Amino acid sequence: MDRRRFLTRAAAVATGIAGPFAGVACAGAQGGAKPAPALGYGRLRPVRDLRDGEVRLHLPDGFKYRSFNAAGEKFSDGSAVPGRHDGMAAFAGPRGSAILVRNHEVNGPVGAFGDRAKAYDPMAGGGTATLRVSRYGEVLKSLPSLNGTMMNCSGGPMPWGAWVSCEETVNGPDVGDDHTGGDNSKLTEKHGYIFEVPLKGTSNARPIRSAGRFAHESVAFDPATGTLYLTEDNFGFPSGFYRYVPPKHPAQAGRLLDGGRLQMLAVKGRKRADLSVGHPPGTAFGTEWVDIDEPDPSFTGKPSNDEAVQAVGTQGRVAGGAIFSRLEGAVYHQGTIYFVSTQGGETASGDTPPDGFGKGRGQVWAYETWSGRLKLVYQSPRAATLDLPDNVTVSGRGTLVLCEDGEGDNYLRGLTRSGGVFDFCRLAPVADDAGAEFAGSTFGPGGHTLYVNVQSRQGRSFAIWGPWQRGAF
Predict the structure, then answer these.
(1) The Cα angle at residue 78 between residues 125 and 450, in degrees rounded to 5
(2) What are the E-state strand segments in 125-168?
(3) What is residue 457's three-state secondary structure?
(4) For a disulfide at 395, which of 88, 139, 262, 473, Cβ 3.0-4.6 Å?
(5) CB 198 within 8 A of CB 165
């Protein structure tokens, strides 16, 4: 860090208004400030899919899209594409193409897709697919890259050329059945881990057990320290924000090693601080980290799934860890980890409180890796503005792209650095497939294309392109 940058940051910390989204902090501190301008792309209109002419998305004027690799189609090896497309990342491929690594959030002992001989658990139906596509959504090659895992929700890209995929479950033969997943006694392995998936070839399907067995959602990597920041999505219970410190910097090791240390974030001077409730935007906290002594707990007597899914988080909260509501997407950008609390905040007048733990319509938090400062950069004032944000990515201009998981129409929305929210894309209703939502948004090489998934039984991926220069993306 050069001297000018250091002095600027030091002055900002002294005033409590530091780093990206500092304008949001200023507005929150002043109170009653008018909402920031949205810098969006204008009115949304129905646009036909260049794949087959069907209307699947509503977009601003000038934008086009093509869907690809839908559930039930074939990979290049002839095996079937599973549904529930979820978290995803894009990497630079040969000759201007993009390499996409995509999760499939399939639950239950339904059997592995792809080659079962390579499966972590031959009875589990989740995993990842790796695709090489053009910037217009034309599939050049597609193959399973991790199978036999379960509820692969999101994850995160790694700069050494890999994707870390997260299991959002603790299902296994040693715990009771969950509410929707079927008979756990049919499973052959424990679940609830993270797995590394290389860009070339397939994963070795070895879980990183020291990174915890809990309802993992996403991962954001800090290249300066080699630390992985992890979110937890417990629908009915408190969730935690974690970090995994590997035994060796992964960029030096060339891969992610097991045997490191798992910790949970805590607020300094406030044991078990409840951050799931409403706070003014710009609220900031000093933080510290508490150790998780048993990240991969051994269960005896086959506890209930509700008990098992809280086993790791309870350790952290007993040590003083902070409480969040449903932590989902996370992304690293310029020394800051942005992560989403899907049901954080408070219920606005006229809104119906969502089911599960947390009664708000969503929060976006920022953790500064260089200062240890945690800041609330946005809190949804009502469902019509932002409704249950989930996956998140960041554009080249520093605008966050939020995938909604709401109860009505679902949108891709932009959150600008000055705190403005705008609608970019609306999902047309998916016939006979209730609960369809956006997931896995990621910009391709050079920012030409935004790739995104629809997470549903009839899931598919999309490539979107157009006049990005007109707005905040």
Answers:
(1) 70
(2) 126-133, 139-149, 152-158, 162-167
(3) coil
(4) 473
(5) no
The answer for residues whose C-beta is within 8 angstroms of residue 78's C-beta and 6 or more apart is none
Q: For the ranges 32-41, 93-102, 282-291, 344-353, which has the lowest average pLDDT? A: 32-41
DSSP class of residue 449 equals E
d(CA 217, CA 207): 15
Share of the chain above pLDDT 90, in %: 86
Q: Which two tokens stand for residue 228?
A: 């992985």
Predicted confidence band at 461 (pLDDT cuts at 50, 70, 90)? very high
Tokens, residue 107 = 């639950």
Tokens found for residue 65: 């899209």
3-state SS class at 227:
strand
pLDDT at residue 338 is higher than 80: yes
Judge if pTM exceeds 0.85. yes
Rounded to whole angstroms, how far apart are CA atoms 72 and 80?
Answer: 6
Mean pLDDT score of the chain: 92
- Phi and psi dihedrals of 168, rounded to 5? -95, 60
Say which CATH architecture domain 21-470 belongs to. 6 Propeller (2.120)
Q: How would you class 311 by CB atoms within 10 Å of its CB: exposed for 0-12, middle for 13-18, buried for 19 or more?
A: buried
Q: Does the pLDDT of residue 75 top 80, yes or no?
A: yes
How does DSSP assign 158-174, residue by residue? ETTTEEEEEEB---STT
Domain ranges of the chain: 21-470
Q: Answer whether residue 320 shows pLDDT above 60.
A: yes
Task: Tell whether the torsion through CA atoms of 311, 312, 317 and 320 is positive or negative.
Answer: positive
pLDDT digits (tens, 9 = 90+) for 382-420: 999 999 999 999 999 999 999 999 888 999 999 999 999
Mean pLDDT throughout 333-352? 94
Query: What is the distance between the alpha carbons of residues 369 and 350, in angstroms, rounded to a whole number?
Result: 37
